[in-house]
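Input record, target 12 of the design panel.
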């Protein structure tokens, strides 16, 4: 990696008119465990999603690892639906792997990352959305890099917040944590899933050739032409080094203030940068 390629990564600023059909109204989670969204079905997958607001389409991938659910949005560093919903048509969903959500689908041990990308792209197809922006937290980082590789012409810009990644000093962290936490919980709730299936799924995700952002290679990131804003974290599952390396490698990358969520007063500044970044690239296609 050429560490001299850029020393300062800054955001552009531009305002633009929104250019997409309005989204249909959908209620928020009630907090009672009830589903108040809608469902998209394809094959054996049944994906619970919500579609709110109007404006240019924005796919929101909540954090929470493999238990990523719509309700996480209200518990994250900032709520992307609340912060961005006045300007964007916000589409967000429970992962098929989330034991605490309403989606379902088989654990595809041969294609763990791609099976979920299928759900995400399939949902956008179902809604008639060709081009969109995406923001993702935690596990959303690897998911976004995979989407950027698989559908580069569809994604206008991406925000990658506190992304998950491979930490070489803790090489089995993601596998071990999910085998102890997520795995037993989903087995309790899904009689069709066994711990043997969980092991196969997690092994393919996190132990077979683990490196970097898990889903793509450094060459893939170098080849990415989509504008990307990276918001680094520095915790065991969210390595700062990997987040910054991805920002340095990508052709059209920017980075946020860091640290940006250690105190409450910094978060509005980080959100402002997200808005500026998204508006600038929304204008580019207007």
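The sequence produced for target 12 reads:
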């Amino acid at each position: 990696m050429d560490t001299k390629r850029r020393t300062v990564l800054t955001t552009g600023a531009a305002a633009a008119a929104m250019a997409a059909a309005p989204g249909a109204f959908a209620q928020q989670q009630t907090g009672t465990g009830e589903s108040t969204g809608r469902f998209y079905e394809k094959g054996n997958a049944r994906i619970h999603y919500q579609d709110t607001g109007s404006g240019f389409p924005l796919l929101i991938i909540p954090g929470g690892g493999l238990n990523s659910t719509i309700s996480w949005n209200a518990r994250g560093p900032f709520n992307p639906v609340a912060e961005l919903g006045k300007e964007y048509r916000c589409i967000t969903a429970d992962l098929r792997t989330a034991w605490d959500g309403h989606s379902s689908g088989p654990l595809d041990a041969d294609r763990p990352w791609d099976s979920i990308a299928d759900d995400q792209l399939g949902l956008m197809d179902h809604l008639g959305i060709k081009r969109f922006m995406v923001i993702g937290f935690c596990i959303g980082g690897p998911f976004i890099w995979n989407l950027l590789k698989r559908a580069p012409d569809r994604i206008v810009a991406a925000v990658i917040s506190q992304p998950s990644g491979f930490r070489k000093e803790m090489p089995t962290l993601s596998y071990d944590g999910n085998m102890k936490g997520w795995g037993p919980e989903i087995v309790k709730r899904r009689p069709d899933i066994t711990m043997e299936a969980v092991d196969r799924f997690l092994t393919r995700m996190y132990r077979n050739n683990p490196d970097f952002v898990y889903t793509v290679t450094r060459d893939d990131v170098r080849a990415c032409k989509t504008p990307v804003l990276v918001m680094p974290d520095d915790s065991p599952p969210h390595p700062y080094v990997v987040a910054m390396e991805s920002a340095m490698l990508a052709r059209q990358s920017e980075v946020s203030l860091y640290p940006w969520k250690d105190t409450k007063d910094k978060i509005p500044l980080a959100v402002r940068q997200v808005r500026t970044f998204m508006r600038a690239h929304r204008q580019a296609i207007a």
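The chain has one domain: 38-167+213-283.
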